Amino acid sequence: MSHDPTDAPALDQRVHFYQVGSFAVGNRLLNADDRTVQSSAQRTNSIDSGHRACQGCGEALGARYALDAAMRATNGRLLAVNATGCLEVFSTPYPETSWRIPWLHSLFGNAPAVATGVSAAMRVKGREDVRVVAQAGDGGTVDIGFGTLSGMFERNDDVLFICYDNEGYMNTGVQRSAATPPAARTATTDVVGDEPGNPFGQGKDLPRIAMAHDIPYVATATVADLHDLERKVERAMSLRGARYLHVFVPCPLGWGAASNETIHLARLAQSTGLFPVFEAERGVVTNVLPIRRWSPVEEYLTLQRRYAHLVGPRGRPDIVARLQAIADANVVRYGLLPDERNDGEDD
Amino acid sequence: MLRQLEGSRAIAETVALCRPEVVCAYPISPQTHIIEAIGRMVKDGSLAPCEFINVESEFAAMSVSIGASAAGARAYTATASQGLLFMIEAVYNAAGLGLPIVMTLANRAIGAPINIWNDHSDAMAVRDTGWIQLFAETNQEAADLHVQAFRLAEELSVPVMVCMDGFILTHAVEGVDLLDQATVDRFLPPYEPRQVLDPDDPVSIGAMVGPEAFEEVRYLAHLRQLDALDQIPVIADAFAELTGRASGGLVHPYRTADADTIVVAMGSVLGTIKDAVDRRREAGDRVGVLGITSFRPFPIAAVRRALSGARRVVVIEKAFSLGMGGVLATDVSMATLGSTAVLSTVVAGLGGRPIPRRSVEETIERAGRDQLTPLSFLDLDDGIIERERGRMARTRRSGPFAENVLRDLRQAKEGRP
Lengths: 347, 417
Prior knowledge:
The structure holds two protein chains of two kinds.
Chain A: H1 58-73, E1 78-82, H2 86-91, E2 103-105, H3 111-124, E3 131-137, H4 138-143, H5 146-155, E4 160-165, H6 206-212, E5 217-222, H7 226-237, E6 243-248, H8 252-255, H9 262-272, E7 278-281, E8 284-288, H10 297-301, H11 317-334
Parallel strand pairs in A: 1-2, 1-3, 3-4, 4-6, 5-6
Antiparallel strand pairs in A: 5-7, 7-8
Helix pairs in contact in A: 1-7, 3-5
Chain B: E1 2-6, H1 7-17, E2 22-25, H2 32-43, E3 51-54, H3 58-70, E4 75-79, H4 81-86, H5 88-97, E5 102-107, H6 121-125, E6 132-135, H7 139-156, E7 160-165, E8 173-177, H8 181-187, E9 204-205, H9 214-243, E10 251-254, E11 261-265, H10 269-282, E12 287-292, E13 294-296, H11 300-307, E14 312-317, H12 328-335, E15 342-347, H13 357-368, E16 375-377, H14 382-394, H15 401-413
Parallel strand pairs in B: 2-3, 2-4, 4-5, 5-7, 6-7, 11-12, 11-14, 14-15, 15-16
Antiparallel strand pairs in B: 1-8, 6-13, 10-12
Helix pairs in contact in B: 1-2, 1-7, 3-5, 7-9, 10-13, 11-12, 14-15
C-alpha cells in the first residue's frame, strides 16, 4: 500500500493532502483500495454499536479498526479471544453483546494460552483457513498475561495478539501497570512525595521483548493513524505463527483528558517520540513511521491531568526534562527523525 | 488381555484410545509419566490427529484446554498438587464455561512443607469448582474411568477430573486390561459441543453476568451436577455391559449389608481397608466398607442407603480442613443426618504416610468398642508434637517447625536426647 500522492486523483490546484492542524490524510483522497475498511458498506462491524465504552475511548476505536481489518484480511474466517478488562466489560454485559464475530473470554491472564488452544483446535480439525486473534489491555499483556504471552511467542503459535495499551488498569479505576509511564498519576501512584506519580523504573517495553522472541511479526500503531493500523493488521494476517501488535490507545477517563483529544494525544505520543511506531520481522526492525512534525513532550503532557503536577508555574521542569530525554532516546534508537527536526513547516 | 503396566502407561494408552485432539503437558510429579507417554504417541504418529502442546505452566495447560474445548476439540491434560493450585483460576473457569475437558489428577500433598507424595489435599482444594471428581481404587478402574469421563463430560458439558493416588497408583505396575479401539469407539461417540466458536455461527462465550442472572447460571451448573448423579450409574452400566467390568458408578459398597460398623474412604486405600475388614469379619465383627467413587457430585442418597443399617460410620480420609476436621466426613454427615449412627473421622496417609492394614484394623476395633474420638490422626507421633509445642512455648524464636520436627526425628533415630 502506498501513500504516494501521485496515486491520488489528479488535481490541478495545490492542495493539502492532510487535514490542516491534525495532519490526518482524508479518506476520500486515497485510492479506493487504500481506503479504510470502515468506508466500505461491507465492513463487518465486529464490535457493533451500543456498547458501554466511555466517550472518546481509544481502545474501542482501535479494536474496531483492528478487528474489521482482520476480518477483511481473513475473508471473515476469524475467531477472537479476549482477556478480562475494559474491552471485555464494556462489550458484553450479559445478555447483550457487541460482538458480531465468534468471541471467547476466559480470564485476565490467560488470553494468549486460550488463543493457543483455539488455534490448535483449528489445526487439528484441518480448518487452518480460520484464524485467531487474541486481545488484551496493557495489564493483561505486560503484567498478568506476560507469562502465557511469552509461552505463546516461544512456541510460535499461530495467533495474532493485540495489546490495546492505555497505560494502566483503567477498568478497575486507573491503577498503575508496568506500562504506566514515569511520573504519571494513577490511583496507586499518587502525586505526593519527592517523586510524584509513577516512579522512574526500567520500563517494560513489550514490543522489544516480543522482538527478542524472534517471532515473525511485531508492530506498534496508534489510533491517530488508523490506515497504518489497518495495514499492519493485514500484514500480520498474511503471516503465520506468533504475531504481536501493540496499539497505543488514549484513555480520556484514566488520563484526565478531554474525550475529543484522543486522536490528538495519540498523534502527540508518536510525534514526540514517546511512543515509537515501527514494524519488525523476525526480530529486526523493518519499517519506522517517521515523525512528520516533531513536538516537545510538554505539549503532550499539558493536555492530561495525570501530568498536571509537572507543568505550569508550580510544575517540575526537572521531571519534564527526564521524560523529554526518554522521547529523545527513542528518536535516536528508531531513527524517527531521519532529517533534522522541522517544527511546524506549513500550517 | 491383562498386561503388566505402570499405572501412568495404562492411563496414557487409554486416553489415546479416547482420541483426544488437543493435549497439554506441563511436568509435575507424579503425573509426568502420563503426558510423557502421550507426547511420544503424538510424535510418532500413533495418536493422530492430535496436537500435543508443551506449555509454560499449569495455568497455561488449563487455559489452552479451555480454548481448544471452546473451539470444538476434545481436550485433555493431567496435573497434581501445586500444579492444580497454580491452575485453579482456570479450573473454575473451565467449569463455569461448561467445557467438557478431562483431566487426570495424580493426587499429591500440597506444601508447605513441600512434599511430592500422595494424599488427597489437592482434590479437596477444588471440590467446589464445578468439576466432576471421580476417584479410582485401582489402575484398572483409573483406566476405565477415563473412557467413562470423556462420555460423561461431553454428554453433560461439564469437565471431569479422574483422581488417582500419586505413586501408589500412577507408578505401580500391575495387571491392567486395556480396551481396544473398536470398543472405545463404540462407547464414546465423537464430541458434539453444545457451544462452539464458529465463523459461520458467531456466539459470545464468557460474557459478564451481573446479579440479575448470576444465581440462575450457577444453579443451572448445580443441576448439571445433579444430572451427573443420574448419568454416572447409567454410563457405568453401559460400560459394564460392553466390557464386563464394574468400574465407576457412584459408590462401591463391600460387605455392608449386615454391617454395624462401616468404614468410608476413597481411592487406593480401599484395598487395604477391605483386607482389614476381611480379617475383622473372620474375627466375628460385622464390618463393611463404602468406597466413594463420585466425590463431586456427592451421592448423598446412595451413601445414605449404603449406611442406613450402620451404628458406626468411620471415615478414613487423606486430607482434612485445618481448624475444622474431615472434608469427606463433613459430606458423609449430610448423608447420616437424622440417623443415630456415630460418625468419626480418621485422618490418615498425609504426605505419603503409609496406611498399614494393622493400623486400620486397630481403628476398626477401637470403633467397635466405641473408643474412637470424633477426630483422630492415624499413627500420629505424639512425642514429636509435644516436643515442638514445648519448644514454641519456651522460645519466641523457635525456628521453622517442619525443620525442627525433622531434626527431632533424626536425633531420636540416632538415640540422642
